[in-house]
Specification:
The protein is of the alpha+beta class and 435 residues long. The protein has helices spanning 12-32, 118-130, 170-173, 316-329, 346-351, 375-379, 401-405; strands at residues 2-3, 34-35, 54-55, 69-71, 101-103, 134-141, 151-159, 165-168, 176-182, 188-197, 202-206, 216-217, 228-235, 239-255, 263-269, 281-283, 288-296, 311-315, 335-336, 339-343, 355-356, 359-360, 365-370, 386-390, 393-394, 413-420, 423-430, 432-433. It folds into four domains: 11-68, no CATH class; 129-206, Trypsin-like serine proteases (Thrombin, subunit H), CATH 2.40.10.10; 216-329, Trypsin-like serine proteases (Thrombin, subunit H), CATH 2.40.10.10; 335-433, PDZ domain (Pdz3 Domain, Roll), CATH 2.30.42.10.
């Protein structure tokens, strides 16, 4: 998500445009083994006489070039005999390239200069097909829900069916008083909130009327690192339907989420994910949505290490499960145990002398409170108990109690491994729906 007002340093755009020219000229000189000096420019007409580039290259390259000329390397049409031209003797091979000033549009090429290459065509076709299904989401913030702050924030969404359902991130629509959607063709319409889920960071909106296109939700089961991917989103809120490409860099990644629950099964990608891309689709080369972009990591939090290309998307299989519940119920039903707990490690366990039959505990959670009439109280869980496992799956930093519970449904019967007064016991618990 991004706030729609932002600043950029004066002149930065010009710097970005001029720098590539200097780099290109420097590389040209380096490639020819030459030193460029006393460069001059002309604006029209025949190139003026200027100092030649000196060096080890066999052909001197004029340092001045007409605005309509450029240095190219391509298959050239053999010259005809005449003044100033060489005759190609029978049985000899015509030059396959020229170095120097060549008028734009002359010569031949194996592919059109301005058209996409074959390996690019798949990307172009995906963008043409899916781009109209990508929208900009405008969140008009409610001051009462945002500590007095008002204004607008924006993100991205993707149309997922013909009835006007749109999936985006929960954090894109958080604290809203009203929502609007801008289609890829520039049309703007109001949107209503169907449901949100902070834990998965997903939300569903609905717009009325006809929609321009619908994206196909794929399958994230068989994704592999190295697969090419495409991200589309409203970068910085103003650059609508920005397209970036990359690969799947990793799978089953985890990031800290809301309510102490870690976001799991995330797709890591090096496709550029900018502010405003939140809620936009991550696509495969078949044009299927394989994820919903949700986060980018810039550093470790210490401020010393800076990372690039660390973007993360919610896997589409998670998206399909969560959005189905949001559409049918307006919320996601999650299991509830009813304990207030704190994670422990060996140092904490040693300080409080938390032990089992094998010695000092080094993992699990210590119960500091039990909610009245909760599944935990009914099962006999007490304050001071240490829960070390659920269904024999150990609880630790990688598998917290909150995350472990997300793998069960409401009314599921589970078994807690509990250490009480140094003795290990099993307590059966029937989960309930979170109030």
């Amino acid at each position: 998500m991004t706030h729609r007002s932002y600043t950029s340093s004066p002149g930065s755009a010009w710097t970005r445009r001029v720098a590539p020219l200097a780099v290109a000229l420097a590389l040209l000189g380096a490639t020819a083994g030459c030193t460029l000096s006393n460069l001059q420019t002309t604006t029209a007409g025949t190139p003026t006489a200027g100092p030649a580039v000196t060096g080890t290259a066999s052909t001197a390259i004029p340092a001045t070039r007409d605005a309509g000329l450029q240095a190219e390397t391509r298959t050239a049409t053999p010259p005809t005999a005449g003044a100033g031209s060489a005759t190609v003797a029978p049985g000899t091979v015509a030059p396959t390239h020229t170095v120097g000033a060549v008028p734009i549009g002359t010569g031949t090429s194996s592919a059109p200069v301005n058209g996409p290459l074959p390996q690019e065509e798949a990307i172009v076709q995906v963008v043409d097909r899916v781009g109209p299904a990508v929208v900009t989401v405008i969140n008009k913030l409610d001051p009462q829900l945002n500590r007095g702050f008002s204004g607008e924030a924006s993100g991205t969404g993707v149309i997922m069916d013909r009835s006007g359902l749109i999936v985006t991130n929960n954090h894109v629509v958080a604290g809203t008083s009203a929502l609007q959607v801008i289609f890829a063709d520039g049309r703007k319409t109001d949107a209503t909130l169907v449901g949100t889920d902070a834990i998965s960071d997903l939300a569903v909106l609905r717009v009325s009327g006809a929609v321009p296109a619908v994206a196909v939700l794929g399958d994230s089961t068989d994704l592999r690192p190295g697969q090419a991917v495409i991200a589309i989103g409203s970068a910085l809120g103003d650059f609508q339907n920005t397209v970036t490409t990359g690969i799947i860099s990793g799978l089953n990644r985890k990031l800290p989420g809301n309510n102490g629950i870690t976001m799991e099964n995330l797709i890591q990608t090096d496709a550029a994910i900018n502010h405003g891309n939140s809620g936009g689709p991550l696509l495969n080369l078949h044009g299927e949505v394989i994820g919903i972009n949700t986060a980018v990591v810039r550093n470790t939090g210490s401020g010393t290490d800076v990372a690039e290309g660390l973007g993360f998307a919610i896997s589409v299989n998670t998206v399909k499960t969560i959005t189905s519940e949001l559409v049918s119920k307006g919320r996601v039903a999650r299991p509830y145990l009813g304990v207030d707990s704190r994670p422990i490690n060996r140092a904490i366990a040693s300080y409080y002398d938390l032990r089992d039959e094998s010695g000092v505990l080094d993992q699990g959670v210590v119960v500091v409170g039990v909610t009245a009439n909760s599944p935990a109280e009914v099962a006999g869980v007490r304050a001071g108990d240490v829960i070390t496992a659920i269904n024999r799956q150990a609880l630790d930093e990688a598998n917290t109690l909150a995350n472990a519970l997300t793998h069960f449904g409401i009314t599921d019967r589970i078994t807690l491994t509990v250490v009480r007064a140094g003795k290990t016991q099993a307590l059966p618990v029937t989960l309930a729906e979170r109030p």
